[in-house]
Specification:
By secondary structure, the chain is an all-alpha fold. It is 87% helix and 0% strand.
Length: 138
């Protein structure tokens, strides 16, 4: 019995680690792109104690991770994880751009530590992430 369990672990664990590693890399890439396209410098603002920037950044990381998690949950094929993971990230990053265009002045509001504006942006990003995850899971 234990031999069977160890044999299964020997096969499944490397796949799990590979899939998790690739997905973590996709998430890291998504966060880097997110930081490059946002109109404000989250790292600086968070370092200064700006709560609104912390809320928006935290929600953005979650919003990027949610559809990636759905991809992991629905396929074990590495190329599918990469392709659908990239598509999911693009959808989330486009969402950020659209929200920034619709809610003009968001940069100023986040820099002014407007927590209400931060929660609005955070909710929109997470809502789209959940829809995105549902679509990916199809």
């Amino acid at each position: 019995m234990m031999d069977h369990i160890f044999a299964m672990l020997g096969t499944a664990l490397p796949n799990l680690l590979l899939q998790l590693g690739v997905t973590a890399l996709l998430l890291g890439l998504g966060v880097l792109i997110y930081q490059a396209i946002t109109p404000f410098d989250e790292r600086r603002l968070i370092g200064q104690g700006n709560k609104a920037a912390g809320i928006v950044f935290g929600a953005s990381v979650l919003a990027l991770a949610i559809p990636l998690a759905a991809t992991l949950a629905t396929t074990t094929v590495l190329i599918d994880i990469v392709i659908w993971g990239v598509i999911a990230l693009v959808v989330q990053l486009v969402t950020l751009v659209v929200i920034s265009l619709v809610f003009r002045g968001m940069k100023r509001q986040i820099e002014a530590d407007n927590v209400a504006a931060a929660f609005g942006l955070a909710a929109a990003q997470i809502a789209v992430a959940l829809l995105n995850a549902g679509a990916v899971a199809g």
